[in-house]
Structures are given as structure tokens and as C-alpha cells.
Amino acid sequence: MPRTTVKLLGSFEVESQGRIITISSGRQRTLLSVLALEAGQLVPTERLAEHLWGEEPPPSSRTTIRGYILRLRRALSPRTAREARPVIASGRHGYQLLLPPESVDVHQFNSLAARAAAARDSVGENDLLRRALSLWRGPALCDVPGDALHRGVLPALEERRLQVLERSVEVALARGEHAQAVVELRRLVAEHPLRDGLWGQLMLALYGAGHQSEAVYQYERCRGILAESLGVDPDPRVRELHRLMLVEDPALGAVRQSAPPLPPSGPGRNTEARSASAMRQDLPSHRLPEAPALFIGREQEQAALSVIAGEEYPGGTRPIIIDGAAGVGKTALALAWAHRAADRFPGGRFYVDLQGFGPADALDPADALMVVLAALGVPPGRLPAGVPARQALLRTRLKGRQALLLLDNAVDAEQVRPLLTGCATVLVTSRDQMRGLVVSDGARRLTLDRLTPVAAQHLLTALIGHERGGAQAEALGDLASLCGCSPLALRAIAESATRWNGLPLEELAAGLRGAPCWLSSLRTGEDRTDPVSVLSWSYDKLGPAPARLYRAFGSYRERRVTAVAAAGFAGVPVSAATEQLDALARLHLVEERVPGCFDLDELPRAFARLLPRTSDGAG
């Protein structure tokens, strides 16, 4: 197929065989844009209709879409090779743009940004960030109509662009390029006056360039704009930076050589800026594991966590739950956000592995309290006995501190509840939905679903290597689809791909699909990275009846099941099937994305196939 590119970061543009292709119809531009955003993936006809006509498409929408597709194929196909495979393929339930993701500038941008985040030196990172930003030719999708498309895509795209811009400025400041950064930051604060992290960066750049008076003046401008527009003060870190500049604190001396990084931030209060105060030595110690070395996607989920964490709650602070299936990336998301939001929690960030799902016994509340209190500096000899006394001491230690307590891998609400002090932000990860914690403690739940197909392919490419992955994009899509875009399974597949480095990815995908159960081919020999072992810890928590139903799903052909259907093939009353499906959904062995309908995703379905129909285990 000849080289075809689709550009959406600016005005809509399609190029094929070196010539610009004009798509004059607004709806055809919308249709091709939606397909390009999910290049290589089948897009359901219903979703295309919603983007074209809204929630009430006309009865003739399918016929009209077929007509649009036909016209697009004619426009995109080479004039001298009409018999060539069409650029847009038809499926039973939708259409697919048969282009590798790197043919679309949006995917190029995301890939370059991800590679920059993984770069090991500032020169390489700076080059990748600049290449990513150069793809933007103006406002994204500026001449593509469609309210649904704009609402669903533009905010995340623009936020990602700003994050890359801010990181690019950080790199420039760290390299001592203060004067150049000032020029860029003046433009950015004019365009985004409510992002106080940008104001903080501008202050640092001006100070580093020797303009202390103007740096202080820019703080006053920031304070006035935020007060008038939002009725709030600048972020505490920006206020602290201003104070240090007024007294010419020696901690700021290093800024003239290299500035501290200022992570991306949102408007108003509770932003995530880091100022020169980060160089001070009087901050409390933090007990978090390292952030994930390779973390792709989840921008919307991180933004949602920031919003939830900033909400006011009458009872003080409310717990936040990240729940989801085994291997979906709950711990990685929690750690990535906890590190990114470090400046929200100057009182400390503390981590406890509650061991709810794993080879060891779950940690009891008394021991979990002991771990946290030890991290807060309580000597072992001064630890009181019993849960109530330790709870009281924890409240005393955390009172008045803006602290984060990350409770990872919780088994149920009863294990977590004794650790809720009301004095700290508590972030819980669990395979359990923690319904009781929502009911009794006002917890906010963020359910983590599998990766999007695009993010899954980006992760595989990063793990396998861009040279190999980028050249076999279609096979990457097949591998991602095979495992349902589960991060754990994707990493296991990448391990197989790197172990059999000479094997084309198409053959790897074909071999896995042809195996009796592809999951058994991905054993790693290490419990915490072995998909079979990881899923077995969820299965082991099931009662006998839900376990029997789950094992029966190993031979069930449909991807979605209702209580009536489950009752039929399992031979139980509908009421019993309803209870058993609910038990499976609570642990995310099935997903109830639509009330009353339970999805059997690829990874838990593959695990069910490995289980015997009768078992002496959980069932």
C-alpha cells in the first residue's frame, strides 16, 4: 500500500503518494478523523453514527455511512492500482483504517512523548519533546466538525500538549537556558493564565536570568488573575517560591545554574508545581516505591485522581479507591500519580502493601498500622498494643499534616477501615470493588479498565523496541487484541517477543492464537509477573458456587452473559446465577459495564479455560 498520512494536529490534511487529497465534505472529514484516531482498530458503526449525527442518528445512517466510506476509499486509493487493498476495511460491525498508527500525527505525538518520558538523558529527551511539539500546526481538528468528537478528544489532546510543553520548559531550565525559556513562558502564561504552574516556571526562568524584580512582579500578576477569575490564591508551592525570592534565600542560588523541575499543573489551587522550596532539606521523608519506569496512557485517570483529591468533604478527607481486574495496572497508576502529585502532600507520602491478593496472608490492620507509624518515626518500643491505641496515635501524628497514605492491594473494606483517620488522603488499590467503603465511609471509586488499543500498542512498541514494533504495527494490534489490552499480559507478550527476537510478530500472534490456551504460553516463572499466578489469587477468593460458574465460562462461547443465560448453561436458578455473577463482578473476573450484562474479557476468560470444570480449589 502506498504511504498515506493523516494529520489532525491543526487543519485536517491527508497526503497519499506525495499528493494532498482534498476531502471537502465535513462529515467525511469527521468520519476519517474518528477512524484515524483509532487507526488499525475496528470502529463500530454505532459510534461513527454518533460522531456524525449525535445521539439520534437518522434511520438511514448505516446506508449513508457506507456511501461516505465508498467515497473516501476512492479518494484515498491509488489511481493506478484500483485493485489494491482498500485503505478502509469493512467489518461485520464497523470499519477499520488500515494504516499503522505512526501514519497519524496524533499517534506520532503520543509515541514521541512516551519515548521522551523514558529517555535517560536530557539531550535525548529534549530532542524527542521538540519533535513531538513540532507536529502541532495549530488547534487540533480545527476544521473537522462534530461536537461529540471535540468533547471526547480535544480536552485530553490539549492537556497532553500542555504537559509536553511544560516538560520541555523544565528541561530547558535544567539545562540553564533561562533566557530562551522566558520567551516561551511569556507566551504560555498569556494563553493559559490560570495554570499557576506556568507562572512558577516563568518566575524561576526570570530569576535564573537575573531578573529578580520582574520575577516577583509576575507573582503579583498571577495572584491578581487567579483572585479575579477563580477567587483563589496561587498554589502553596508558588507562594513559597515567591517568599524565597523576597528574602533572596540561599536555596535559590542553584537556580542560576539549573532550575528544579515543575511538573504539569492545572488551573487554580492544588496544582502540581515544584518550586525551589523542593531544594529545602526540612521536608519529611517519604516512603513510596519508585514510580513505574515505563508508564503509558492513563492521562484521564490521573487527571480524575487529582480532581477527586482536591474535592472538599464535610468529614475531612474521603478515601479514594482504585479498583480493577488483576494486572490492569492499579498499583502503577497509584504510584505514578502519587509521585506526580508529590507537592500536594508536604506532610509525607506513605505506602503499605496490604498483601490482599498474593501468595502470602493478607496483612492485618494492627500490622498495617505498625508499618505506617514506623514510617512516621515512632520507635518500635513506643508502639502501643492493639488497633484502637494505634489508630489514636496515627491520628495524632497526622493531624494538621497534608499527607498521603497509599494502601496497596487491599483485600476488602474491613482491612482498610481501621486505617482511615480523616486526617490524611487515603488512596486504596484493590481487585475488590470495596462497596462497603463507599457506603459507610463516603469513598470515591475510580474503576480502572483495560488500556485503549492505541495505548496498548504504544506500550508494546516501547517494550519491544520502536524499530521492530513500528515496522509491524498491524501485528502489534493483533497481539493487543488477543490479550484484551491488559497491561500485565502485554508485558508478558513483550517478554516472549524479546526472547524470540528473530520471530516476526505476525508469527508470534498466530502461534498464540493457535495454542489451546494462549495464556499458558506466557508463564514467567515468577509469581508476581506470571499472569496465571496473578489471576489465581483472585480465583482463590471465590466461594464454591461462584468458582463453579467461573470455571464453566472456560467453555462459554459468547463474550457477554446475563443471569438468565448463566443460569441456563450452569444449571442453577436465575437468582443463584445473579448472586454468583455479582460475586465475580466484585472481584472483576467479569465486568458489568452495562447493568445486568457481564463481559468476559480476554485475560480472565483465558484463565478460566485453564481450570478444570470440576475442582477441589476455590470451587
TrEMBL record:
Residues 1-99 bind DNA. GO terms for biological process: phosphorelay signal transduction system; regulation of DNA-templated transcription. Transmembrane segments: none annotated. SMART domains: AAA, BTAD, Trans_reg_C. Belongs to the AfsR/DnrI/RedD regulatory family. PANTHER family: TRANSCRIPTIONAL REGULATOR REDD, TRANSCRIPTIONAL REGULATOR REDD-RELATED. This is Regulatory protein AfsR. It comes from Streptomyces leeuwenhoekii. The lineage of its organism: Bacteria, Bacillati, Actinomycetota, Actinomycetes, Kitasatosporales.
